[in-house]
Structure to design on (268 residues):
């Protein structure tokens, strides 16, 4: 059974006894973006699918810009059949937004995206270092899905850092002194030989999360997820799937001026 399927079953169990109105889908949005907060960052080019019941769930789309479904509005989101994995993840994220959540840390970021990009990267890298603090040697970390500001702080931390991506414009280029390798060819090899894999929440939508977690379990590699896609799933990832830590960033993301909330969930 895949992680996505298990998350769906857990969601249906957890929602029993809660008011049905809490799961009425009242909104859908798509947002196309080209974004780079500073010169040290790549240009992100994505579509984002947002859905809303009481709060918003989100998925950075792996399949391109989706067509919104007007017939879904006003329906119980738990009873809808997702047309693809992007919809499934956004819908699940929205369902999980209606559950009670607890986290070990909560960070309130206020200001413009330039400032928040650095603050967000520091939160992610500090968690990576926290997870590896008891290692009696120099840690080896692989960053899957390159975020330039995070990679910069990782490379300055003293750890041995590797990075992979699927973007052909990044592969075989050096960013912040780290050579970017082809994720399709090297992800599992590097995850298996690293002390920690830092991955994105989008791996759930691309269908690669299952193999990543399996490889990590077999290799005793820690996993840290930084999630805008599926941000409300962070606590469940740790409790049900053994993910060591999740840095969750629900919408509105740091890319927008104003207030963003980042929560850190841990297995232990």
């Amino acid at each position: 059974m895949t992680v996505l399927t298990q998350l769906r079953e857990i969601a249906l169990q957890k929602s029993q006894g809660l008011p049905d109105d809490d799961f009425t889908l009242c909104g859908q949005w798509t947002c196309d973006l080209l974004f780079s907060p500073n010169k040290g960052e790549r240009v992100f080019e994505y579509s984002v699918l947002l859905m809303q019941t009481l709060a918003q769930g989100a998925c950075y789309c792996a399949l391109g810009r989706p067509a919104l479904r007007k017939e879904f509005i006003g329906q119980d989101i738990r009873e809808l059949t997702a047309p693809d994995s992007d919809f499934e993840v956004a819908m699940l994220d929205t369902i999980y937004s209606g559950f009670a959540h607890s986290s070990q840390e909560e960070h309130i970021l206020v200001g413009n995206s330039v400032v928040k990009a650095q603050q967000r990267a520091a939160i992610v890298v500090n968690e990576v270092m926290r997870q590896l603090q008891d290692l009696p040697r120099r840690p080896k970390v692989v960053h899957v899905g390159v975020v330039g500001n995070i990679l910069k702080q990782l490379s300055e931390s003293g750890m041995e850092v590797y990075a992979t991506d699927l973007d052909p414009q990044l592969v075989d280029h050096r960013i912040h002194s780290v050579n970017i390798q082809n994720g399709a060819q090297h992800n599992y090899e590097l995850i298996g030989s690293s002390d920690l894999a830092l991955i994105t929440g989008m791996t759930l939508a691309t269908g690669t999360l299952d193999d990543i977690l399996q490889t990590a379990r077999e290799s005793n590699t820690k996993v840290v997820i930084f999630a805008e896609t599926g941000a409300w799933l962070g606590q469940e990832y740790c409790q049900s799937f053994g993910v060591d830590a999740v840095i969750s960033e629900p919408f509105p993301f740091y890319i927008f001026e104003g207030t963003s909330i980042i929560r850190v969930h841990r297995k232990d």
